[in-house]
Design goal:
heterodimer, A: mainly beta, seven-stranded mixed β-sheet, four-stranded antiparallel β-sheet, B: mainly beta, six-stranded mixed β-sheet, five-stranded antiparallel β-sheet, globular
Chain lengths: ~120, ~110
């Protein structure tokens, strides 16, 4: 069964509005979660690393004020796309490691993704 | 040079065929390696980890060559259900995904 749950799976919103996406680890504590986005026929691109109890680490070129990340508990991280624009339309996926997040050999479990369409 | 490179395909093969995917990575400090499978409009799912000694899981065999910085995935006796995109993933201080190789198995 799924070990990482992501909600909603699909959302359509109007330009200028904000959208919140939730990512939960179901049967383990995740001190670190990751947020990716994927454009059609492209690879996953890491946006940011979400750290429980501290600020997220954003990848170069990702606006931290636009993509707000909150990791308030060991099982929940949220990504809020603020003032969404059509170019923000994409597939957003969260992930977490079931093992020691600092271990190089821990594979990631992914949420089922959120398809965001901004009209 | 991209950090992780894969042939995007598509690879169109008949059922029962053997197909091999290759992947190269640029960072020699990379520590661990994985193959993920992604179905259309779905999230990636871990297929298998890749070790220098090679590892096999049923019809799937993965191999790592650290000297050449090269990873491979071999699928034997292809099934229709194997049709998907296969992502090569390399872990240095973060996971880097290849663009994926599209496989289409036809009857």
């Amino acid at each position: 069964g799924a070990v990482v749950s992501q909600h909603p799976s699909r959302v359509i919103c109007k330009s200028g509005t904000s959208v919140k996406i939730e990512c939960r680890s179901l049967d383990f504590q995740a001190t670190t979660m990751f947020w990716y986005r994927q454009f059609p026929k492209k690879s996953l691109m890491l946006m940011a690393t979400s750290n429980e109890g501290s600020k997220a680490t954003y990848e170069q070129g990702v606006e931290k004020d636009k993509f707000l990340i909150n990791h308030a508990s060991l099982t929940l991280s949220t990504l809020t796309v603020t003032s969404a624009h059509p170019e923000d339309s994409s597939f957003y996926i969260c992930s977490a490691s079931g093992g020691d997040p600092s271990s190089y050999n821990s594979p990631l479990h992914f949420g089922n993704g959120t398809r965001l369409t901004v009209t | 040079r991209k950090e992780v490179e894969q042939d995007p395909g598509p690879f169109n093969v008949p059922e029962g065929a053997t197909v091999a995917f290759n992947c190269t990575y640029s960072n020699s400090a990379s520590q661990s390696f994985f193959w993920y499978r992604q179905d259309c409009r779905k999230e990636p799912k871990l297929l298998m980890s890749v070790y220098s000694s090679g590892n096999e899981d049923g019809r799937f065999t993965a191999q790592l060559n650290r000297a050449s910085q090269y990873i491979s995935l071999l699928i034997r006796d292809s099934k229709l259900s194997d049709s998907a995109t296969y992502l090569c993933v390399v872990n240095t201080d973060k996971l880097i995904f290849g663009t994926g190789t599209r496989l289409q198995v036809f009857p």
